[in-house]
Fold this protein.
Amino acid sequence: MRLLWLVDVLRAAGLTVREYDGWRTRGSETWGPLTGVICHATAGSRTSTDAGETRTLWVTGSTSAPVPISQLYLSRSGEWTVGASGRCNHVAFRDVRPSSPLAGSGNSQLIGVEAQNDNRGEPWSARMLDSYQIGAAAICARMGWEAWRVLGHAEHQAGKSDPLGVDMDAFRRRVAALLEGDDVSWSERLTLPAWVVELWGDKDGVATAGGLLTSGYGHARSVNDRSKTMLTEQRAGFAAVLAKLAGEDVAATVQGLLEAAAVRERAERQAEQAALAATLADGVLAGLREQLGEVADERLVAAAEAGVRSALRRGVGES
Ligand SMILES: [Zn+2]
Protein backbone atom coordinates (compact mmCIF):
# COMPACT_ATOMS: atom_id res chain seq x y z
CA MET A 1 0.00 0.00 0.00
CA ARG A 2 1.35 3.41 -0.96
CA LEU A 3 0.05 6.87 -0.26
CA LEU A 4 0.50 8.07 -3.82
CA TRP A 5 -2.31 10.59 -3.33
CA LEU A 6 -0.37 12.67 -0.77
CA VAL A 7 0.94 15.32 -3.18
CA ASP A 8 -2.37 15.84 -4.96
CA VAL A 9 -4.45 15.92 -1.79
CA LEU A 10 -2.19 18.50 -0.10
CA ARG A 11 -2.03 20.65 -3.23
CA ALA A 12 -5.82 20.48 -3.59
CA ALA A 13 -6.01 21.96 -0.09
CA GLY A 14 -4.18 25.02 -1.40
CA LEU A 15 -0.78 24.11 0.04
CA THR A 16 2.59 24.46 -1.66
CA VAL A 17 4.02 20.95 -1.97
CA ARG A 18 7.46 19.81 -3.12
CA GLU A 19 8.27 16.24 -4.10
CA TYR A 20 11.47 14.73 -2.71
CA ASP A 21 13.19 12.49 -5.25
CA GLY A 22 12.13 8.88 -4.90
CA TRP A 23 9.11 9.52 -2.66
CA ARG A 24 6.85 7.25 -4.69
CA THR A 25 8.93 4.19 -3.81
CA ARG A 26 10.41 5.20 -0.41
CA GLY A 27 9.30 3.21 2.65
CA SER A 28 8.03 -0.35 2.83
CA GLU A 29 4.73 -0.86 1.05
CA THR A 30 3.86 -3.54 3.60
CA TRP A 31 1.94 -1.58 6.17
CA GLY A 32 -1.53 -0.59 7.29
CA PRO A 33 -4.37 -0.42 7.93
CA LEU A 34 -3.81 3.23 8.81
CA THR A 35 -5.36 4.77 11.92
CA GLY A 36 -4.06 8.33 12.31
CA VAL A 37 -1.61 11.19 11.88
CA ILE A 38 1.23 11.96 14.30
CA CYS A 39 2.53 15.54 14.46
CA HIS A 40 6.24 15.88 15.20
CA ALA A 41 8.91 18.56 15.42
CA THR A 42 12.29 17.87 13.79
CA ALA A 43 14.17 19.23 16.85
CA GLY A 44 16.90 20.59 14.59
CA SER A 45 18.51 23.98 15.12
CA ARG A 46 16.62 27.25 14.67
CA THR A 47 18.73 27.97 11.64
CA SER A 48 18.29 24.57 10.02
CA THR A 49 17.65 24.47 6.27
CA ASP A 50 15.01 22.53 4.38
CA ALA A 51 17.80 20.72 2.52
CA GLY A 52 19.47 19.66 5.77
CA GLU A 53 16.27 18.58 7.49
CA THR A 54 14.94 16.56 4.54
CA ARG A 55 18.32 14.93 4.05
CA THR A 56 18.14 13.66 7.63
CA LEU A 57 14.58 12.42 7.12
CA TRP A 58 15.16 10.55 3.88
CA VAL A 59 18.88 10.08 3.19
CA THR A 60 21.02 9.85 6.30
CA GLY A 61 18.59 9.17 9.16
CA SER A 62 19.20 10.32 12.74
CA THR A 63 20.87 8.77 15.77
CA SER A 64 17.46 7.54 16.95
CA ALA A 65 15.79 6.49 13.70
CA PRO A 66 16.76 4.97 10.37
CA VAL A 67 15.41 6.33 7.08
CA PRO A 68 12.76 6.92 6.04
CA ILE A 69 11.78 8.81 9.19
CA SER A 70 8.46 10.29 8.04
CA GLN A 71 6.21 10.52 5.03
CA LEU A 72 5.95 14.31 5.26
CA TYR A 73 8.00 17.39 6.11
CA LEU A 74 6.63 20.86 6.87
CA SER A 75 9.04 23.78 6.49
CA ARG A 76 9.07 26.98 8.59
CA SER A 77 7.92 28.66 5.38
CA GLY A 78 4.68 26.64 5.55
CA GLU A 79 5.65 24.60 2.49
CA TRP A 80 5.30 20.84 2.50
CA THR A 81 7.59 18.16 1.10
CA VAL A 82 6.45 14.61 0.44
CA GLY A 83 9.38 12.21 0.92
CA ALA A 84 7.86 8.76 1.31
CA SER A 85 4.69 6.93 0.34
CA GLY A 86 5.29 3.80 2.42
CA ARG A 87 5.93 2.87 6.05
CA CYS A 88 8.31 5.16 8.00
CA ASN A 89 10.06 5.21 11.40
CA HIS A 90 8.65 8.12 13.43
CA VAL A 91 7.21 6.40 16.52
CA ALA A 92 8.41 3.60 18.81
CA PHE A 93 5.76 1.01 19.49
CA ARG A 94 7.16 -0.07 22.88
CA ASP A 95 6.60 3.36 24.45
CA VAL A 96 3.04 4.02 23.27
CA ARG A 97 0.93 5.51 26.05
CA PRO A 98 -2.04 3.31 27.06
CA SER A 99 -4.04 6.55 27.30
CA SER A 100 -3.35 7.50 23.68
CA PRO A 101 -6.52 7.47 21.57
CA LEU A 102 -4.35 5.65 19.02
CA ALA A 103 -2.83 3.16 21.50
CA GLY A 104 -2.08 -0.03 19.65
CA SER A 105 -0.91 1.85 16.59
CA GLY A 106 2.73 2.06 15.54
CA ASN A 107 4.71 2.91 12.43
CA SER A 108 2.62 0.47 10.44
CA GLN A 109 -0.57 2.38 11.19
CA LEU A 110 0.52 6.01 11.47
CA ILE A 111 1.31 8.78 9.00
CA GLY A 112 4.10 11.03 10.30
CA VAL A 113 4.64 14.74 9.73
CA GLU A 114 7.99 16.24 10.79
CA ALA A 115 7.74 20.01 11.20
CA GLN A 116 10.81 22.27 11.19
CA ASN A 117 11.04 23.46 14.80
CA ASP A 118 13.78 23.11 17.40
CA ASN A 119 11.30 21.71 19.95
CA ARG A 120 13.11 23.72 22.63
CA GLY A 121 10.83 26.75 22.75
CA GLU A 122 11.10 28.08 19.21
CA PRO A 123 7.83 29.95 18.51
CA TRP A 124 5.51 28.45 15.94
CA SER A 125 4.45 31.05 13.38
CA ALA A 126 0.75 31.43 12.59
CA ARG A 127 1.55 30.73 8.95
CA MET A 128 3.25 27.43 9.76
CA LEU A 129 0.55 26.26 12.19
CA ASP A 130 -2.11 27.21 9.66
CA SER A 131 -0.40 25.10 7.04
CA TYR A 132 0.11 22.24 9.53
CA GLN A 133 -3.61 22.17 10.37
CA ILE A 134 -4.73 22.42 6.75
CA GLY A 135 -2.44 19.55 5.77
CA ALA A 136 -3.61 17.35 8.65
CA ALA A 137 -7.24 18.11 7.80
CA ALA A 138 -6.66 17.27 4.12
CA ILE A 139 -5.22 13.88 5.09
CA CYS A 140 -8.15 13.22 7.46
CA ALA A 141 -10.64 14.17 4.75
CA ARG A 142 -8.93 11.80 2.28
CA MET A 143 -8.96 8.97 4.83
CA GLY A 144 -12.48 9.65 6.11
CA TRP A 145 -11.11 10.38 9.59
CA GLU A 146 -12.30 12.70 12.31
CA ALA A 147 -9.99 15.24 13.95
CA TRP A 148 -9.32 13.09 17.07
CA ARG A 149 -7.08 10.90 14.91
CA VAL A 150 -4.52 13.73 14.76
CA LEU A 151 -2.14 13.49 17.75
CA GLY A 152 1.03 15.17 18.87
CA HIS A 153 3.91 12.72 19.27
CA ALA A 154 4.01 13.57 23.01
CA GLU A 155 0.35 12.59 23.35
CA HIS A 156 0.96 9.22 21.75
CA GLN A 157 4.33 8.18 23.08
CA ALA A 158 5.89 8.40 26.55
CA GLY A 159 9.16 10.30 26.90
CA LYS A 160 8.41 12.58 23.94
CA SER A 161 7.71 16.33 24.06
CA ASP A 162 7.15 17.20 20.42
CA PRO A 163 5.70 19.25 18.94
CA LEU A 164 6.58 21.42 21.96
CA GLY A 165 4.51 24.59 22.22
CA VAL A 166 1.70 23.40 19.97
CA ASP A 167 -1.71 23.27 21.67
CA MET A 168 -2.94 20.01 20.16
CA ASP A 169 -6.51 20.52 21.41
CA ALA A 170 -6.68 23.84 19.57
CA PHE A 171 -4.96 22.14 16.62
CA ARG A 172 -7.67 19.48 16.49
CA ARG A 173 -10.46 22.05 16.86
CA ARG A 174 -9.14 23.79 13.76
CA VAL A 175 -8.82 20.48 11.92
CA ALA A 176 -12.43 19.69 12.88
CA ALA A 177 -13.59 23.10 11.65
CA LEU A 178 -11.75 22.57 8.37
CA LEU A 179 -13.31 19.13 7.99
CA GLU A 180 -16.75 20.58 8.63
CA GLY A 181 -16.11 23.21 6.00
CA ASP A 182 -16.81 26.15 8.29
CA ASP A 183 -13.29 27.51 8.28
CA VAL A 184 -11.07 29.18 5.73
CA SER A 185 -7.33 28.90 5.35
CA TRP A 186 -4.91 31.82 5.67
CA SER A 187 -4.16 31.76 1.96
CA GLU A 188 -7.63 31.01 0.62
CA ARG A 189 -8.79 33.62 -1.88
CA LEU A 190 -12.20 35.04 -1.06
CA THR A 191 -14.53 37.08 -3.26
CA LEU A 192 -15.26 40.40 -1.61
CA PRO A 193 -18.82 41.68 -1.29
CA ALA A 194 -19.68 44.69 -3.50
CA TRP A 195 -19.70 47.19 -0.62
CA VAL A 196 -16.16 46.23 0.38
CA VAL A 197 -14.94 46.57 -3.21
CA GLU A 198 -16.50 50.05 -3.31
CA LEU A 199 -15.11 51.02 0.09
CA TRP A 200 -11.57 49.86 -0.67
CA GLY A 201 -11.57 50.73 -4.34
CA ASP A 202 -10.37 47.15 -4.85
CA LYS A 203 -9.90 46.28 -8.51
CA ASP A 204 -9.91 42.48 -8.35
CA GLY A 205 -12.64 42.07 -5.77
CA VAL A 206 -10.63 39.17 -4.33
CA ALA A 207 -8.51 38.99 -1.17
CA THR A 208 -6.88 36.26 0.89
CA ALA A 209 -8.27 35.43 4.31
CA GLY A 210 -4.92 36.49 5.78
CA GLY A 211 -5.06 39.80 3.93
CA LEU A 212 -8.61 40.42 5.13
CA LEU A 213 -7.58 39.77 8.71
CA THR A 214 -4.70 42.21 8.39
CA SER A 215 -6.92 44.85 6.80
CA GLY A 216 -9.61 44.25 9.39
CA TYR A 217 -7.08 44.74 12.16
CA GLY A 218 -5.81 47.95 10.56
CA HIS A 219 -9.35 49.25 10.19
CA ALA A 220 -10.23 48.42 13.78
CA ARG A 221 -7.07 50.13 15.00
CA SER A 222 -7.79 53.33 13.04
CA VAL A 223 -11.38 53.40 14.34
CA ASN A 224 -10.03 52.97 17.85
CA ASP A 225 -7.55 55.83 17.35
CA ARG A 226 -10.27 58.10 15.96
CA SER A 227 -12.68 57.32 18.79
CA LYS A 228 -9.93 58.09 21.32
CA THR A 229 -9.40 61.51 19.70
CA MET A 230 -13.15 62.19 19.73
CA LEU A 231 -13.38 61.24 23.37
CA THR A 232 -10.52 63.61 24.23
CA GLU A 233 -12.24 66.44 22.33
CA GLN A 234 -15.57 65.72 24.00
CA ARG A 235 -13.94 65.74 27.40
CA ALA A 236 -12.33 69.12 26.64
CA GLY A 237 -15.71 70.49 25.48
CA PHE A 238 -17.50 69.21 28.54
CA ALA A 239 -14.84 70.71 30.78
CA ALA A 240 -15.37 74.11 29.12
CA VAL A 241 -19.12 73.88 29.70
CA LEU A 242 -18.53 73.03 33.36
CA ALA A 243 -16.12 75.97 33.75
CA LYS A 244 -18.70 78.32 32.24
CA LEU A 245 -21.44 77.02 34.53
CA ALA A 246 -19.20 77.51 37.52
CA GLY A 247 -18.55 81.16 36.62
CA GLU A 248 -20.61 84.39 36.69
CA ASP A 249 -22.57 83.40 33.62
CA VAL A 250 -24.71 81.09 35.73
CA ALA A 251 -25.96 83.92 37.93
CA ALA A 252 -26.74 86.08 34.90
CA THR A 253 -28.60 83.27 33.18
CA VAL A 254 -30.66 82.44 36.25
CA GLN A 255 -31.49 86.15 36.78
CA GLY A 256 -32.62 86.41 33.15
CA LEU A 257 -34.86 83.37 33.51
CA LEU A 258 -36.43 84.74 36.70
CA GLU A 259 -37.13 88.08 35.04
CA ALA A 260 -38.75 86.45 32.05
CA ALA A 261 -40.97 84.41 34.36
CA ALA A 262 -42.01 87.55 36.26
CA VAL A 263 -42.91 89.40 33.05
CA ARG A 264 -45.06 86.49 31.92
CA GLU A 265 -46.78 86.35 35.29
CA ARG A 266 -47.63 90.07 35.15
CA ALA A 267 -48.98 89.72 31.63
CA GLU A 268 -51.20 86.83 32.67
CA ARG A 269 -52.48 88.80 35.63
CA GLN A 270 -53.20 91.79 33.39
CA ALA A 271 -55.11 89.63 30.93
CA GLU A 272 -57.24 88.25 33.75
CA GLN A 273 -58.04 91.77 34.96
CA ALA A 274 -58.96 92.88 31.45
CA ALA A 275 -61.38 89.95 31.10
CA LEU A 276 -62.89 90.83 34.47
CA ALA A 277 -63.29 94.48 33.39
CA ALA A 278 -65.10 93.44 30.22
CA THR A 279 -67.52 91.30 32.22
CA LEU A 280 -68.15 94.19 34.63
CA ALA A 281 -68.74 96.56 31.73
CA ASP A 282 -71.31 94.21 30.18
CA GLY A 283 -73.16 94.00 33.48
CA VAL A 284 -73.14 97.78 34.05
CA LEU A 285 -74.29 98.45 30.48
CA ALA A 286 -77.12 95.95 30.74
CA GLY A 287 -78.41 97.78 33.81
CA LEU A 288 -77.96 101.15 32.10
CA ARG A 289 -79.99 100.03 29.06
CA GLU A 290 -82.74 98.88 31.30
CA GLN A 291 -82.94 102.31 32.97
CA LEU A 292 -82.71 104.17 29.65
CA GLY A 293 -85.14 101.81 27.95
CA GLU A 294 -87.76 104.41 27.53
CA VAL A 295 -85.42 106.97 26.00
CA ALA A 296 -85.87 106.94 22.24
CA ASP A 297 -82.52 108.50 21.37
CA GLU A 298 -80.21 105.63 20.38
CA ARG A 299 -77.24 107.98 19.99
CA LEU A 300 -77.48 108.93 23.64
CA VAL A 301 -77.42 105.23 24.63
CA ALA A 302 -74.41 104.51 22.43
CA ALA A 303 -72.46 107.47 23.83
CA ALA A 304 -73.18 106.34 27.40
CA GLU A 305 -72.04 102.78 26.58
CA ALA A 306 -68.77 104.01 25.10
CA GLY A 307 -68.12 106.23 28.12
CA VAL A 308 -68.59 103.35 30.58
CA ARG A 309 -66.39 100.93 28.62
CA SER A 310 -63.60 103.50 28.36
CA ALA A 311 -63.73 104.28 32.04
CA LEU A 312 -63.55 100.60 33.02
CA ARG A 313 -60.62 99.90 30.70
CA ARG A 314 -58.63 102.74 32.16
CA GLY A 315 -59.45 101.38 35.57
CA VAL A 316 -57.68 98.06 34.92
CA GLY A 317 -54.74 99.61 33.08
CA GLU A 318 -55.72 98.42 29.60
CA SER A 319 -54.67 100.93 27.00
ZN1 LIG B 1 8.40 13.00 17.19
